[in-house]
Amino acid sequence: MNLHYYPRENDKKERWITLLSILLILAVIAMLIFLNWTRIQLSIKGYNKEERAFLLTLDKEELADYLNYDNAIDFSRWDSLENNRHYYNYELLSDTELKDKEIVDYIDTYYENYHEWFVAHGYQPKQIQMLLHRYTIKELAFLKEHTLTWKQIAPYIEINGCIIQDLPQYLQTKKEPQEAIMEISYPNIISQNKTSRIYYLENPEHPVLLIKNGFQVSTDYVPKNLVEVAIPNAPDNTNNKMRKDAAEALENMYQDALKKDLHLAVNSAYRSAKEQKIIYDQMFAIYDSVTASGLVSPPGFSEHQLGLSVDLTSQSVIDEEIPVFGYTKEYEWVSKHAHEYGFILRYPLNKTHITGASNEPWHFRFVGVEVATEIYEKGITLEEYTQQHGFDYPVSLKS
Ligand SMILES: [Zn+2]
């Protein structure tokens, strides 16, 4: 019996040991999987060992972005290179308008030709990232070519409207950065100062946006919240919409004028770039180009496309009792009170050299009560206001 007993006891013991060992091994495996889960996910997505090692150095949020991609980003072209920041910069630029291939070309060119120079000239990683995100290779090349250090450019590049190519001139003026930028890069805010430059305004929603010849919004831009203005219309007007904020202000102005027995009406408010083009072409067919360009803006350059401007008229003009709006009691009242509702007389008679537009007593622009009041009280134009305050929105040179 004993002979049978001991082996059986041993058998049982052995089975326990085996079971425990298996459990232990499974636990170790589970632990390893747990500890390396991110690494495993990355490798399932197709990142190789070196790429994984780099990605794991990123902070949580950056890493999460990589984990959210369906597949690995194709970094094959960068395999032979040693600089891991390529990967990071790819991520950085993937929210720009650049296509994948353009991003890869851009980053390649940067590391081949410029990276060392920037590092040697005091640019920190954060600053380099910002430059890469914001500027073209041509602009980076310009910084290098002109040996501009971070310390030199920093006060300027944070100001809206700073143009890289103008940096050496800003530095020469020794003026306050904003003043230097306005003077050097935007002399043609004042229309009599001609340049061939065209500037692009990428935030057409901004209520104080300076749009005029040379300062353009996308011809595709259509304001949100366009509403029909609830005041009378000139008989043949089909453009009686404005942005809601401007429409409400105009309705209030209309009602208050009515209390004084003054009868305002809308001649033309929002116009799409397409409608603007039709008017533009008509004017050029009738007048010589100098006259025509003083009378009407090209598509993309007109205030009417913003939904913030209105050409006013009055019942007396509609009834042909008075020939033009500028001679009416309504004009007299509006020119003194429009600012209380947020409107400015945009193209005054004595400012045509600044605005570049001929006297337009009917054209009013909504900019909000605060700005309108300042412009009215100082007797200035939107151009001069912009010169004094700088751009409160991004402006870039159109390439
Ligand atoms: Zn107008």
TrEMBL record:
The chain crosses the membrane at residues 16-35. Keywords: Carboxypeptidase, Hydrolase, Membrane, Protease, Transmembrane, Transmembrane helix. The keyword Protease applies. InterPro entries: DD-CPase-like, VanY-like_core_dom, VanY/YodJ_core_dom, Zn_M74/Hedgehog-like. This is D-alanyl-D-alanine carboxypeptidase family protein. One of its GO terms (molecular function) is carboxypeptidase activity. It comes from Amedibacillus dolichus. GO terms for biological process: proteolysis. Residues 240-368 form the D-alanyl-D-alanine carboxypeptidase-like core domain. It comes from the Bacteria. It holds the Pfam family VanY.
